[in-house]
Description:
Layout: H1 2-19, E1 28-29, E2 32-33, H2 39-64, H3 67-73, H4 81-87, H5 91-95, H6 103-106, H7 110-114, H8 127-151, H9 163-167, E3 181-188, E4 191-199, E5 205-211
Antiparallel strand pairs: 1-2, 3-4, 4-5
Helix pairs in contact: 1-2, 2-8
Amino acid sequence: xSDLGRIRGDILNLTxxxxxxxxxxxxxxxGGTRYNLDRERKTTLLKRLRTSLKELYHASDLLWRSPSxxxxxxxxxxVDKETALSLGLVGPAARASGLERDCRKNFPSPAxxxxxxxxxxxxxxxxxxxxxxxxxxxxxxxxxxxxxxxxTPDSPSGETCQEKExxxxxxxxxxxxxxxxxxxMEEGWRGEVCHAAVTDRQGNLRTYKIID
Length: 212
């Protein structure tokens, strides 16, 4: 609907407030983040997030309260657990069929170990279940973001990292092992995303591939 499109724009603007870019580019860099989060920015983020979520829940409820929509959701397009296993489904599609496949739990990064994310799962495997997963993940993500922002210590306003420290590879606080093949898994909006990296004898990246 047009309401959801407008709210999506509001959420993208929150990303711009945090990262300086509506698509999340520019904040995360090798070894950390480009700048720290000050109290003013954090307070603004929380306030605008709660406003957008309130509007989003209201728009979403219009869908769930519509009998004609529910008639097209319940019992339609069912994929049972056994079929999901045989197809190798991942992400929300797998979780809607009763499989607990989520890289944030199965291959957690330190952030998800320290602060676990609530994993939403259904069992019916129909369109209703897949839509319910999306609604549940919206709520779980909102809970997670609020907790992370609330637990993040305030930094002095305007404090930034020096870009030159991260533009020079020699200044990074870690080293890359030579002659290695490495994998990393993360959860994308459709399911697992696999990163594969190969280094040469000097420890430089020879190949880097992302499989979504």
